[in-house]
Amino acid sequence: MPEAVVNLRELLTGKERDHDGVGTILAHRVFARRPGSPGAEFIDLAVLPPGTSIGRHRHGADRETYVVLEGGGLMFRDGTEFRVGPGDVVVNDPHGEHGLRNDSDRQDLRLLVFEVVLPQGPEGGADGGDDE
Quick check: is 24 in a domain? Predict the structure, then answer.
């Protein structure tokens, strides 16, 4: 039987140079969709220690959303850079380029990330696949 309470400190694992970013972030996939099931593709918790980043990257026909839980940083999305902080929600559109850097020198940036694959076909206009 699973433990009643598990602390994230025990679950988070290092990801070096995530999407060719800087340093090692910590992450845990809380949820992954089963093939053929509806709903989000995945839900991740991520921690970017000071000076680390999720490198600039693109996806295919999905919408990836970042929810900043704690800390702050510099977000890049489709040619624009802007500051993000606790409570900010950033929707990264399909095929768009995005990345995030914790430019703090002392506070972790904690983040919830989830991805939803958009419908394919004439109405959805998506081409499928994830270019990660």
Answer: yes
Whose CA is closest to 47, among 31, 71, 82?
71
Residue-range definition of the domain harbouring residue 14? 8-40
Phi, psi of 18 (to 5 degrees): -55, 120
Looking at residue 76, its amino acid is F
C-alpha span between 106 and 113 (Å, rounded): 22
Which pTM does this prediction carry? 0.81
- The answer to whether 132 and 61 are in contact (CB under 8 A) is no
Q: Which residue in the block uniquely carries the two structure tokens 């992954």?
A: 32
Single-letter amino acid, residue 97: E
**What pLDDT was estimated at residue 1?**
63
Q: What is the CA radius of gyration of the chain?
A: 15
Q: Are 113 and 66 in contact (CB under 8 A)?
A: yes
35 located within any domain: yes
User: Is 68 within the bounds of a domain?
Assistant: no
> For each successive 10 residues of the chain (132 residues), what is the average pLDDT?
75 87 91 81 93 93 93 96 97 93 96 86 46 43
CA distance 13 to 29: 10
